Inverse folding.
């Protein structure tokens, strides 16, 4: 790394040139300077997950366990018990399923300070197919007590999330893509706080709640709908799935009365479910739809083709928003007139 | 001999006292994994009352030796050991298994002072202990990590991932005990899912193997002292033990993996323990 990373100097150039996981690797290096207790772990994916950038800089603080994810997360728990701060990286599928019990029992149950960067989330490893897709990981991770779950919108938000995770006590699961996703943010100074969503488009007709790759797509869809259909679409970047920003959801229920969620995940158990929980418990009604993978195993293909197929790109979002605009919901206290 | 006559007597007396205590708690708790607790006890006694650098007055000292009870169901033996060593009041154990007790069938490190890892799900302890040993190495700390796995537990593949890593990273600061009591829930280990040749398996994974009688404290002590001098390979001590050791009607009986005692049976157990220690001269 010739370029000095100071922590607040990501430029548009960096964001556009570096992949999400490269930015993660560089951020971890920057943090490694300040925090001598940080150690990196990989299970033969140092190159793919970009934690290898940390390895190059801190070879004595990096452990490659080979292809053994269960052992890796157990080792991370042991390292944390000795006072170190492990950052563990492997693909989201293997983190959340192969090593699920180690993450739950060794790390979350013991409430240990282990930070997990799970790469290749959703269908970002497109052509690799279902074995390497992770469309269940958020559901699994958010069901573990003590776990914090973050799905950054892009590389710049990943840098913010990784930095915030260092100061956030307990286990954190940060889900990234493969690294070829375009950025939404051009600067990191937008007030990233774990558990606090970001309203990236103001609107009064409908609210889109997005996370990960759907944030950029939702912003583009909202701009299109405003320009061509005069629709006022609020867009919320719900980067933290747990703890979820209840306040922003309830505000959207009362102010827009229509909510639609977009996530690169099974519609069961992820962002949409988390939002639905809040809506259902608010006692207020609204038209609501969740969009993601409709409880199916994902197809093979390039990610952009898969996003289009599953209605997670801007065109899909526009189509789904228009559908929800047609949906009825109870406007007043008289329920009988709807039936 | 690793232990002087005096030390040996002291550890024997401690083990005897703890066996009686384990029987009492098992009765009060309404049941416990007493068979595997009794097989493991003598190793725990040697570690906690002779070899581990620990201080009950400073239980979180970062330089203390660590112990991971991978066969977490032996908590019925482990918790009394920690109490006897002075980490907490042994009266707390009267509520073993009861509502909101810190002590359930499997140890919770966040609730039990002196306990280094929450365990219970088999195949988890050795990776955690491996991480602790690596943590010592990375930080240039001198503490040692000990881990006890059950023999049946070695059916779990994650142990062998950790065994590979322990040898690869040359973790000579890690010592593993296999509590080779030959029994698992459904029957004898060699019948359900055989492990033999077990010593050869560990050797093939790059470990130095010491085989002992794990209920003979003198042999346990010798093995630990040998393991502490390891310079090349991590050491595994395959400790041949008797499930239910010290209580005649439990010994080598599969059904005593988990069992309960009424006062009559408990009395029989206490008598049997006294008899065993009388022959040992304690």
């Amino acid at each position: 790394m010739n370029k000095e990373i100071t922590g607040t100097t990501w430029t548009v150039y960096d964001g556009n040139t570096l992949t999400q996981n490269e930015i993660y690797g560089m951020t971890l290096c920057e943090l490694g300077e300040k925090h001598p207790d940080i150690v990196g772990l990989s299970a033969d994916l140092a190159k793919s997950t970009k934690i290898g950038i940390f390895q190059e800089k801190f070879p004595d603080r990096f452990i490659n366990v080979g292809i053994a994810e269960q052992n890796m997360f157990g080792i991370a728990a042991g390292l944390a018990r000795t006072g170190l701060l492990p950052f563990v990286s492997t693909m989201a599928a293997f983190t959340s399923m192969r090593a699920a019990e180690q993450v739950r029992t060794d790390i979350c149950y013991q409430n240990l300070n282990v930070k997990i960067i799970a790469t290749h989330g959703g269908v970002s490893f497109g052509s690799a197919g279902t074995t390497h897709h992770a469309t269940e990981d958020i559901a699994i991770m958010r069901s573990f007590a003590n776990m914090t779950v973050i799905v950054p919108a892009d590389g710049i938000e990943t840098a913010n999330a990784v930095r915030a995770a260092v100061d956030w006590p307990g286990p954190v699961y940060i889900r990234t893509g493969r690294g070829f996703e375009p950025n939404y943010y051009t600067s990191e100074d937008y007030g990233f706080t774990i558990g606090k969503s970001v309203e990236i488009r103001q609107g009064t007709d409908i609210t889109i709640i997005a996370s990960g790759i759907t944030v950029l797509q939702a912003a583009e869809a909202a701009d299109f709908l405003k320009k061509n259909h005069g629709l006022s679409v609020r867009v919320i970047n719900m980067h933290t799935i747990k703890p979820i920003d209840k306040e922003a959801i309830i505000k959207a229920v009362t102010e827009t009365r229509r909510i639609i969620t977009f996530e690169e995940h099974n519609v069961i158990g992820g962002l949409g479910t988390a939002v639905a929980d809040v809506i259902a418990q608010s006692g207020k009604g609204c038209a609501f739809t969740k969009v993601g993978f409709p409880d199916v195993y994902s197809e093979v293909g390039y990610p952009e083709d898969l996003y289009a197929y599953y209605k997670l790109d801007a065109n899909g979002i526009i189509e789904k928003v228009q559908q929800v605009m047609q949906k009825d919901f109870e406007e007043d206290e008289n329920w009988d007139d709807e039936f | 001999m690793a232990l002087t006559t005096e030390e040996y007597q002291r550890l024997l007396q401690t083990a005897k006292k703890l066996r009686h205590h384990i029987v009492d708690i098992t009765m009060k708790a309404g049941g416990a994994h007493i068979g595997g607790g009794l097989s493991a006890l003598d190793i725990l006694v040697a570690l906690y009352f002779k070899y581990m650098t620990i201080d009950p007055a400073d239980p979180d000292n970062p330089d203390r030796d660590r112990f991971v009870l991978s066969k977490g169901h032996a908590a019925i033996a482990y918790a009394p050991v920690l109490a006897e060593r002075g980490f907490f009041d042994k009266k707390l154990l009267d509520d073993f298994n009861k509502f909101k007790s810190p002590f359930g069938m499997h140890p919770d490190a966040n609730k039990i002072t002196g306990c280094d890892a929450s365990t219970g799900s088999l195949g988890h302890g050795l990776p955690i202990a491996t991480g602790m040993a690596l943590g010592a190495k990375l930080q240039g700390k001198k503490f040692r990590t000990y881990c006890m796995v059950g023999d049946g537990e070695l059916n779990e593949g994650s142990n062998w991932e950790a065994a590979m890593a322990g040898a690869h990273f040359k973790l000579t600061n890690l010592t593993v005990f296999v509590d080779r009591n030959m029994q698992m829930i459904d029957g004898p280990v060699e019948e359900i899912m055989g492990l033999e040749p077990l010593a050869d398996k560990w050797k093939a994974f790059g470990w130095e193997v010491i085989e002992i009688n794990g209920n003979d404290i003198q042999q346990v002590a010798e093995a630990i002292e040998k393991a502490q001098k390891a310079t090349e390979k991590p050491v595994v001590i395959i400790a041949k033990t008797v499930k239910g050791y010290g209580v005649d009607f439990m010994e080598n009986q599969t059904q005593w993996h988990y069992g309960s005692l009424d006062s009559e049976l408990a009395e029989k157990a206490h008598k049997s323990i006294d008899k065993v220690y009388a022959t040992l001269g304690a």
Observations:
- The two ends of chain A are 65 Å apart (CA to CA).
- The CA atoms of residues 196 and 245 of chain A lie 6 Å apart.
- Residues 1-13 of chain A have pLDDT under 50 and may be disordered.
- Chain A has two domains: 12-175, 198-326.
